[in-house]
Amino acid sequence: MADLLTIENLTIRHVGRPLVSDVSLSVAAGERVGLIGESGSGKSLTALAAIGLLPDGMTASGSIRLSDREVIGSADRDVAGLRGTAVATIFQEPLTALDPLMRIGKQIAEAVRRRAHRDGRSVDVQAEVLGLMVRVALPDPARLARAYPHEMSGGQRQRAAIAMALACRPSLLIADEPTTALDVTTQAEVLTLLETLVREENMGLLFISHDLPVVGTAVDRVVVLRAGEMVEQGPIAEVFGRPRHPYTLGLVEAARAFDQAIGAAL
Ligand SMILES: Nc1ncnc2c1ncn2[C@@H]1O[C@H](COP(=O)(O)OP(=O)(O)OP(=O)(O)O)[C@@H](O)[C@H]1O
């Protein structure tokens, strides 16, 4: 199956200094790939490069093919056309994706309209909005559609952000720490939701997290970054079960020790 995203030998520099070096990874339809590593290891920059949104002053080299288009060296208007169509993103803090002054139903409706316009389809916007809200398990959608973001819980806001991402009907979803701001129960619900959506819509998922237990439940394959370099990658059971690199072993042991400490305290 063709890859939705193929990154080859990606190097990202800021004033000549490499922040990400020689990273390669790919995501195919229906595949869930994790990008892990400590804070500052280059996970978010890799994701931003994939959608052509590196901060000013940074340069990328290597190759990034998103939906069969080369991102590196392309004009922003060409890559911009892929954002919200081929690829959608969700972030740790859903408020960054939401307009605080607009009712949630209206925000999802705008995403539905944009996509319908691009596709040249006519849609029953209201029905599609309610359908998406049901899809992401938002309770009482007809009532909640009239709520403003501040009137919703963190978990509900993240579900709304996921509904907006889905309204784009992306083939690839990039989720950067999407559950980090949520309590453990809501975290598990959102992870299950993402898993179901990826399976049912046959989307690809690039899932970024520093939280190993979360990654362990969310992805099939994992890529480990350390100080901007890829130290290993492979199926989740292999990488977490038999880490080959001492850095990965350290991450796995730290997560295990943390789990045991929590277990002992309960
Ligand atoms: N706008 C920027 N200007 C200069 N350096 C930056 C900028 N953004 C990130 N960096 C640097 O690039 C490196 C990688 O950052 P990145 O945000 O990709 O890390 P990360 O793995 O996503 O971390 P976290 O888990 O904390 O989000 C870090 O050393 C960071 O300090």
Number of helices: 10
| Level-2 CATH architecture of the largest domain | 3-Layer(aba) Sandwich
- C-alpha end-to-end distance: 46 Å
**Which CATH first-tier class of the largest domain would you pick?**
Alpha Beta
Shape: globular
Indicate the multimeric state: single chain
> Ligands in the structure?
adenosine-5'-triphosphate
The counted number of beta strands is: 10
Provide the number of structural domains: 2
Helical fraction: 40-55%
Unreliably modeled segments = none
The CATH topology of the largest domain comes to: Rossmann fold
Q: Mind telling me the C-alpha Rg?
A: 19 Å
Strand order of the largest sheet: 6-7-8-3-9-10
CATH superfamily of the largest domain: P-loop containing nucleotide triphosphate hydrolases
Biggest beta sheet summary: 6 strands, mixed
Outline of this structure?
With 266 residues, the protein is an alpha/beta fold. Helix content is 41%, strand content 26%. A hairpin with a 2-residue loop joins strand 1 and strand 2.
Relevant terms:
266 residues; alpha/beta; Rossmann fold; 2 domains; six-stranded mixed β-sheet; 10 strands; 41% helix; 26% strand; globular; binds adenosine-5'-triphosphate; ABC_transporter-like_CS; ABC transporter ATP-binding protein; ATP-binding; membrane; ATP hydrolysis activity
